[in-house]
């Protein structure tokens, strides 16, 4: 076997999102692109704002020597200072340029953070439903994932988290606003979670670091910005990407920020920089760093996504689907009719040519994710076909 056993097994298990994407591509080639209604992939529909193109034009027109050579692994100092100043002005985090590392998107940021923090066998609490790649990121760095279910409204269950904490727990991975549910964790709940983690540290001597994954932070349907765990708990690494807010996921640019007041902050910053180098990222893309620094105050245009959200929530509810309306991002996570999410998604694909993703891939079976960052014709026809599916699924048989 050419491929390592662990990778071969992971490939077999696969990412449901990518699996549906590949099935959709095959179906589009066979049936025609207009005959398939793909609501599976969270790929931003909107183009980047005009300020993005203007920033690129300005950067391209500048021609100082050495602009495209190697830089410090943490990224350009002036960019890190701009990010730190922006976080201070917006009240999202207390940090400075010497505690910000520019990274290759949030995925790159999570990997350098886990590499810097984890010893083999350290436990990482992951709240379900979770972004599908989290478990792979943890295994990349020899950590042990411990999945903790959220409540019925997809909000953190403090009692369940408390029960899952052990002396081996090193990291809690948070994602708010959440993919796949679109839920936003309220500031009061984050403060209560911080108190829980502080109490755990006092009782066990084991400090838990929080990785707060925040790429949808400005994408609230009611406006404003989601609260950050970094303002409630100093041992938080705030991880951000401009992939969704600026509609540039292919450009791979983000940051990891550390609170200078956290114990061991300087050492952790050095660890993040070292991990950036040895994992082969070397540094975040230089041109994109400069562009991001010029776009920190550009607002996110949520109007189109807000209209799509209203259409999707109303359409699914009218068809009888049970769901929690998303507060942010461009996903909704309804219950699967009949309870068998995999069977439902496969039938929707085979019989109605609609692609949605089983909740099992996000650690929450019995649901499915619909991404509404799609063209209106795809959403509208997809909703019609999902309405047909609502009555087709038999109730899942219970054992015993």
Please give a structural write-up.
With 400 residues, the chain is α/β, with parallel strands linked by helices. It folds into 2 domains: 5-48 and 301-389, Aspartate Aminotransferase, domain 1 (Alpha-Beta Complex), CATH 3.90.1150.10; 70-294, Type I PLP-dependent aspartate aminotransferase-like (Major domain) (Aspartate Aminotransferase, domain 2), CATH 3.40.640.10. 40% of the residues lie in helices and 13% in strands. It has helices at residues 5-13, 16-31, 50-61, 77-90, 105-117, 134-140, 158-164, 187-204, 265-278, 286-294, 303-318, 341-352, 376-389, and strands spanning 37-38, 100-103, 123-128, 144-149, 169-175, 209-213, 236-241, 254-258, 331-332, 354-355, 357-358, 368-371. A 7-stranded mixed β-sheet has the order 2-8-7-6-5-3-4, with helices on both faces. Helix 6 (134-140) links the parallel strand 3 and strand 4 (144-149). The radius of gyration is 21 Å and the shape is globular. It starts with a helix and ends in an 11-residue tail after the last helix.
């Amino acid at each position: 076997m050419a491929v390592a056993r662990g990778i071969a097994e992971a490939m077999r298990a696969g990412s449901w999102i990518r699996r549906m994407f590949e099935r959709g591509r095959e179906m589009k080639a066979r049936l025609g692109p207009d005959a398939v209604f793909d609501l599976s992939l969270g790929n931003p529909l909107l183009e980047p704002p005009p300020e993005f193109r203007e920033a690129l034009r300005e950067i391209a027109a500048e021609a100082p020597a050495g602009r495209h050579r190697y830089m410090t692994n943490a990224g350009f100092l002036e960019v890190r200072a701009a990010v730190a100043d922006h976080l201070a002005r917006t009240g999202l985090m207390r940090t400075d340029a010497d505690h910000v590392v520019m990274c290759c998107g949030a995925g790159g940021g999570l990997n350098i953070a886990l590499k810097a923090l984890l010893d083999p066998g350290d436990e990482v609490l992951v709240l379900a439903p979770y972004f599908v790649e989290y478990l792979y990121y943890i295994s990349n760095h020899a950590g042990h994932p411990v999945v903790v279910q959220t409540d019925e409204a997809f909000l953190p269950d403090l009692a369940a988290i408390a029960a899952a904490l052990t002396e081996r727990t090193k990291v809690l991975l948070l994602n708010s606003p959440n993919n796949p549910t679109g839920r936003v964790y309220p500031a009061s709940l984050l403060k209560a979670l911080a108190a829980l983690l502080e109490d755990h540290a006092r009782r066990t001597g084991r400090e838990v670091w929080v990785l707060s994954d925040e790429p949808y932070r400005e994408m609230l349907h009611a406006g404003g910005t989601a609260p950050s765990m970094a303002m409630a708990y100093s041992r938080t690494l705030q991880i951000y990407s401009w992939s969704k807010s600026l509609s540039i996921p292919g450009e791979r640019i983000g940051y990891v920020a550390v609170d200078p007041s956290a114990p061991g902050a300087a050492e952790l910053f050095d660890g993040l920089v070292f991990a950036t180098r040895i994992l082969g990222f070397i540094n975040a893309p230089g041109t994109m760093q400069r562009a991001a620094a010029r776009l920190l105050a550009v607002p996110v245009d949520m109007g189109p996504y807000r209209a799509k959200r209203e259409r999707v929530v109303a359409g699914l509810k009218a068809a009888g689907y049970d769901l929690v309306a998303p507060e942010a991002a461009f996903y909704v996570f309804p219950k699967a009719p009949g309870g068998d999410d995999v069977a439902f998604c496969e039938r929707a694909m085979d019989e109605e040519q609609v692609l949605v993703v089983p909740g099992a891939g996000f650690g929450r079976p019995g649901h499915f994710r619909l991404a509404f960052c799609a063209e209106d014709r795809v959403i509208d026809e997809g909703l019609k076909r999902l309405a047909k599916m609502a009555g087709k699924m038999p109730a899942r048989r219970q054992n015993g």
